[in-house]
Amino acid sequence: MEKLIPAHIASLVPYPPGKPLDELEREYGITNSIKLASNENPLGPSPRAVEAVRKALWGLHRYPDGSGYYLRRRISEKFDLPFEGIVLGNGSNEVIDLVIRTFIQPGDHVVLPAPSFLVYSLAVQAAGGHATPVPLKDFVIDLEAMIDAVTERTRVVFINNPNNPTGTILSRHTMDAFLDGLPPHVVVVVDEAYIEFARDPEIFRGFGAIRRKGPYVVVLRTFSKAYGLAGLRIGYGVMAPEVADYLNRVRQPFNTGSLAQAAALAALDDEIFLEKTCRAVWEGLEHIRRRLSAAGLVCVPSETNFMLVKVPVDAKKVFEGMLRRGVIIRAMNAYGLPEYIRVNAGLAEENERFVRTLLEVLETLEG
Fold first, then answer.
1. Which listed residue, of 146, 157, 252, 340, carries a Cα 20 to 30 Å from 25's Cα?
2. Where is the PTM N6-(pyridoxal phosphate)lysine found along the chain (predicted)?
3. Can you give the pTM of this predicted structure?
4. Domain of residue 318, CATH code
C-alpha cells in the first residue's frame, strides 16, 4: 500500500482536531468543563437559524438545492455582490480546497503567512504544490515580505484578515498597495472568517477589492463564528463570476446540506443576535485582558473573538494543567508559538473561570 501513496500525501500531518468534550471529561475524570479552544460562539447558534432548521427537517428526504440559490441570492443582495460570483462550501474550509484544486498543479507555488490558519498549507501539500511560509512581523502579516516571496510559479497567496491565531489586522491602505504590487499571474485569497468581530474602521474588507481587481481576488467568509453555525459546516467564497465558474466545475454536487442552507439564510439577517454576539465577545475579551494585564501577563490586541496570551512556561504544560481543571484552551506550539496560549471569549462566568484557573496553573507550574 505504501508504494501506491504519493510522497506529498504520505508526509502530510493531519489537522489536529480536539477530542469531544464528553470524552475529555471521561478521560480526565472531570465534570462541568468549559471549552474556550475553538473560537466558537459563546451564545450558541442564531435563534432564527434554529427555527429555520426545525422547519426544514421534514424535507430531509429531498436532496438539497445544489446551487444554494436562495442563500446565494440573499448574500448577493445584502452585500451588493454578483450572484454568479458566490460559491457555497462545506465551511469556508471547502472553498479553500476548491481554490487550491482549481489553480494549483503539482509543483506550483503558494505564499502564505506564518503562523496562520494551518489548513492553507495542508491543502497546498495535498495538491502536490509547495508553500512558502512568510513569518509575521510583530504578530502582523508582513506584506512586503509576502510580495518578495512571490515567484514565477506562484499561483495563490493567502491572506487571513483578521489573522488566526494572532487576531491582528491589515489596513485598507496597506492591502490596496499590496494588491496593486502583485504580478497578474497571482490570485489572492482573503480569508475573512472573523471579520464580523473587527471594530477598527481602517481594516481592509475584501468585497470592494473584488470589484476593483476582478478575477485576482477571492474572499472567504463563514457562518461558523459570529453566526454560531460551526456544527452545520457552511461558508462561502466571493469572486469574479468567471472564477466561480471554474470552482463550480471542481465542486461536488450537493456539497452543502439543506439544513445548513436554511440556517445560514436565517442567520444572515439575524442582526439582533449578531449584535449580542459581538458585544459579548468584546466585553469578554476586555475582561480577560484587564484581569491578566493586572497579573503581569501580556495579551496580544485582537480584532477577533479570541486572544493570544503569553505565558512564562511551555504552553503545552499550561494546556495540560488547565485541562485537568476542566478549562480547555489551545496551546500554540503547533503554530510555532510555544510561549502562547489562545483563548476565545466565552460567557462572563466562563471568562472569569478561565482567568482564575490560568493564574492557579501558572502559580503551580512556576512554584
1. 340
2. 225
3. 0.94
4. 3.90.1150.10
